[in-house]
Predict the structure.
Amino acid sequence: MSRYNRHIILSEIGQTGQDKISSAKVLVIGAGGLGSPVLQYLTAAGVGSIGIVDFDVVDISNLQRQVLYGTSTLGMNKAEAAKHRLEDLNDEISIVAYPEKLTHKNAIDLFNQYDIIVDGTDNFETRYLVNDACIITNKPLVFGAIYKFEGQVSVFNYKNGPSYRCLFPNPPEKGSVPNCSEIGVLGVLPGIIGTMQANEVLKIILELGNILSGKLICYNALTLQNSTIRINQLEENIQSILKDKVNFQNKQIDVKCEIDIATVSFEALLSEKNIQFIDVREAHEQPKVEDLLVTNIPLSELEHNLDKFDSGKKKVIFCQSGIRSKRAVEILQEFNIQNCFSVKEGASEIKTILKTYYKLSSNEK
Amino acid sequence: MHITIKYFGQIAEITQAKEESVEFSGHLISELLQVLNTKYENLKTIDFKVAQNQELVSIEKELTGGEIALLPPFSGG
């Protein structure tokens, strides 16, 4: 077997170790920035069975960091495009693509088919879902997450060790932490963090070295500083997930993803036609935006006023600062109301933009 | 007591520094956080956890001096 020769001649791995790699089954959730290097190295290493979960399609803005894809795979489902690329890299292993969203309903059955789970997702809803499903199915979780130039890596739930909920017990308030589609990220950063995740996966399979369990590595690509933080087990946080095990598959939230929410600049919209503007602030809130034809639907009453959203129009939603409007889009998506956009700017900024816009257009006349 | 405070992610953007050193006479980590909340108004808008000398701790713990790190969760992938 010359393919794995450089592994086999390492005394720490040998044929025995390579056989362990060949019989390992690893499920990677998210085939994006982190998933790309994870999948490439695990495939190259000969992990016998690899599952890839991703519902998203390849977009041109992904190619700056998601090195599994190219211009020929634009628009393709990521799990399927990744499988196609990886089968060329190694045709001796089995790769299964799951071109679907991970949900509370499908997670448990899926996780049960694999030995190790890798988190390469890009939103908190799915991260907590992955963590909790790992607790329930008792699978080790190789965790990685990134922000601009910084990354976090850890191994959770390894031999009953701490879980992500021992580090961050609950998801942060929605929208308070941006993800990569809203902010920038250095392209090579997920390459570094994802490769560290692949390394942990192989160490777990080979039972080699010190597994990053109970520790969080915080890596900064600009300073090249690595901080290692010890995480203690918070048993009650793990037990509360196990106690609620029977209800897990019925949980409904969390199937959406932050990247579905289009956050747009107001200026870009003004030239477009067929738009319904919606103000989701409460009736008393100032300033009013009088220069536009606005439908007023406070966020608190949104779910009772779904019929007021014009299905034939692009729905542009604003509030005081862009947070409630984003939440409104999330709710509308849950009700399958499409073509909704949240405006980044708040009402007073919108007024200023409108003023400038009308001044300019009247000058042109 | 001499304390070096390290900031990560969005928190470092609010504080405009990756770390700073302070002299502090309070006893609890929560007291130090109160001072930081006053100094950096937007700190309240971010969820984070605290590590003391590279160990994740409750903010009700006593300050022992050395290093305090403020760690926000990251969601990107």
